[in-house]
């Protein structure tokens, strides 16, 4: 049992060491200004122009090469000290016998570098912005979609079918009824015939009596 625990701890330590090596392998070492030369410059924006076009991240490092015993690198904590080339706040001074200093970025944020000599006249001023750790972006969890799906939109109301067109109205006039003889007219005719017959009979009887 103890042997198994020892083997597990050894394996875990090996994995942690491998991850650390891989992480450091991704770190980049930059030379200040692109060449590494840290010295008087006639262009007061030279170093910052270079830094603006460079991407710095945690565990990256920057190398300063300067004339030993005559120059140095100061890392100041205040932006005001950087602007005025003073050291009123916390200061880290790098002055190596070899004339070379390497500073590693162990955090994200602003790093203000000035020269140990009068940087207002030598224009040895540099601001570096260090971005977040590479792993914080590459291993960021992908947001999972919400489990509750949005309700489906209500179906649009179906339009009522169009009403059928009205039936065509037959405008042909109805045929007039056939003309019938008025009963009064027939009756009148009968009376006339009867009257004529009576007159003829009366005339005949009168003639017979006269003769």
Based on the model shown, name its key terms.
Immunoglobulin-like, single chain, Phytocyanin-like, three-stranded mixed beta sheet, extended, five-stranded mixed beta sheet, 18% strand, alpha/beta, 211 residues
Spatial strand sequence of the major β-sheet: 2-8-7-4-5
Question: CATH top level of the domain at 24-136?
Answer: Mainly Beta
Mean pLDDT: 73
Q: CA-to-CA gap between the ends? A: 182 Å
Main beta-sheet strand count, sense and barrel state: 5 strands, mixed
β content, as a range? 15-25%
CATH superfamily label of the domain at 24-136: Cupredoxins -  blue copper proteins
Here the CATH topology of the domain at 24-136 equals: Immunoglobulin-like
What would you report as the Rg, rounded to the nearest angstrom?
Answer: 61 Å
Q: Pick out the low-confidence regions.
A: 19-23, 145-149, 177-194
Label the CATH architecture of the domain at 24-136: Sandwich
Structural class: alpha/beta
> In DSSP terms, counting alpha (H) and pi (I) runs of 4 or more, how many helices?
6
Any idea what the shape is? Answer: extended
Query: Fraction of residues in helices?
Result: 25-40%
Order of helices and strands: HEHEEEHEEEHEHH
Number of strands: 8
Protein name: Phytocyanin domain-containing protein
Region (Disordered): 137-186
Domain Phytocyanin: 28-132
GO molecular function: electron transfer activity
Fold and architecture overview:
Residues 28-132 form the Phytocyanin domain. Pfam families: Cu_bind_like. Keywords: Signal. With 211 residues, this protein is an alpha/beta fold. Helix content is 35%, strand content 18%. The chain has a domain at 24-136: Immunoglobulin-like, CATH 2.60.40. The termini are far apart.
